[in-house]
Amino acid sequence: MNPLKAQLKDLDSPIKVLFSGYLLTVGIGYLFALIQILFTHGMADGKFGLSIDDIVYSYYGNRSGTVMETQLNGSMKSYASEEERFTIIQWTRDGAEEDEYESSGVKKIIEQRCVMCHNAESGSIPNYNDFKQLKAVTEQDEGATFSSLTRVSHIHLFGISFIFMFVGLIFSFSETAPNKIKNIAIGMPYAFLIADILSWWLTKLDPMFAWLVIIAGTGMGASFAFMWFVSLSEMWAYNYVYVEGLALQSEKLRVFSVKKLELDEQTKLSGVVCYLVKKVTGLVKGKVLCPAWSWIKSKTGKS
């Protein structure tokens, strides 16, 4: 039972507008966050779209090359021509010596293509007018530094947890999902947020954990989307979604699923979902987690 005895569809219109405004705003913010990921991490391997290589390069690094080379072949690829990128990469592979910085033509390219952003006012990114800072990015690419991971981790943990607290609070007034599903949906973002942050650190240590970054991010997004949709639909389209429209389709889906899975005919759709979650969890545990744990133990020599 709802402790405040309030339901989204019965709220006064000013409260609905307040809740909807917040949900729409954070929904747009979430969308832009995904776009930002595509244009930063998603370009780490030089190809548009998020892949395992992008995750590995971002956190573990591309140990076969330098930071400069990874950037020029990745997210910074469009800022210089192929010939200019080749000149810079060749200079870094030759040792990035200061006495060859100008004679090789690299200084001119850096001044024309890079220092417009990489300057003293650039904030957290290196200042290429300072040769020492430029020299630092010609070292082996070891991905994100521990200091940057610490900074980004605490920002995400504080900021995103507040977003999910308010989204979860609004969703808690919903009535169409049983308490078991509501508890899972409200708790999932926090579990996946912690897993997401932890996966950055694990991938920094071993690239095999890059999969966990994608799994955690997907789980966090799925729980957000579910709470977001249910909350808005109950406030503004309750009859159409849950009585006249989607409710009928859900009943057809329930009947079909119960028959295929050979469950009791009275099983609710939430029961079908819980059954499938248990099956998928068992499958992931048996086919992925247990073999992965065995592999880790074999590598670390633990019994």
Description:
The chain contains 12 helices and no strands. Helix 1 packs antiparallel against helix 9 (about 210-235) and helix 8 (about 180-205) runs antiparallel to helix 9. The mean pLDDT is about 85. It has helices spanning about 15-40, 50-60, 65-70, 80-95, 105-115, 130-135, 145-170, 180-205, 210-235, 240-245, 245-260, 270-300. The two termini are about 45 Å apart.
Comma- or semicolon-separated keywords:
single chain; mainly alpha; 2 domains; 12 helices; 67% helix; 0% strand
Short description:
The chain has twelve helices and no strands. It has 303 residues and is mainly alpha-helical.
Structural class: mainly alpha
- Number of alpha- plus pi-helical segments: 12
Largest sheet: none
Number of domains: 2
Contiguous runs where pLDDT drops below 50 for at least 5 residues: none
Number of DSSP-assigned strands: 0
Mean pLDDT: 83
Sheet-strand content, in percent, reads under 5%
Helix proportion = 55-70%
How would the blueprint of this fold be written?
Blueprint: H1 13-39, H2 52-59, H3 67-72, H4 82-93, H5 106-113, H6 131-136, H7 146-171, H8 179-205, H9 210-236, H10 238-244, H11 246-261, H12 269-300
